[in-house]
Specification:
Elements: H1 8-24, H2 35-72, H3 76-92, H4 95-143
Helix pairs in contact: 1-2, 1-4, 2-3
Length: 144
């Protein structure tokens, strides 16, 4: 089955699996991971978010069509079928809830990225200070 054939729920579940397994479900002592791994998680998340956006648009279109058909027709059987389809969409693809969850995931990843940037800045500052100290020591040896 291709990604395009998956339901929105399956794609969203895959995002949770990728993000939580790689970033959040690690023990505290194991929270450090390579920048390559971090970038891979962001790439996978970006791809999944694009796919979810496509699928969300498609489901939203279907939902609108079922509502339109239900409004236009007077046939009770068709109205019943549309109601059942709308109920299935609501139960299986709660788009609003999923979008809120994805926004929350995005915020968590953004905070993680900020934390990484701060950590990198601290490392750079420490390395610069150590380099300057070594450089000063070497310069004072040369002067003597």
């Amino acid at each position: 089955m291709t990604v395009k054939q998956r339901t929105l729920y399956e794609v969203q579940s895959e995002i949770h699996r990728i993000v939580f397994n790689r970033v959040y479900n690690r023990p505290t002592s194991d929270r450090k991971f390579s920048s390559r791994e971090y970038l891979n998680v962001l790439r996978e998340l970006s791809r999944a978010l694009k796919e979810i956006d496509k699928l969300t648009s498609k489901v939203d279109l279907w939902r609108d069509e079922f509502i339109r058909i239900k409004t236009v027709t007077k046939n009770l059987e068709i109205v019943g079928l549309c109601n059942r389809a709308l109920t299935d969409i609501k139960q299986k693809v709660p788009v609003v809830i999923r979008c809120e969850e994805l926004e929350e995931e995005n915020n968590k990843l953004y905070c993680e990225m900020i934390r990484w940037q701060e950590e990198l800045l601290k490392i750079k500052t420490t390395m610069d200070a150590a380099f300057n100290k070594v450089l000063s020591a070497k310069m004072s040896e040369v002067v003597k």
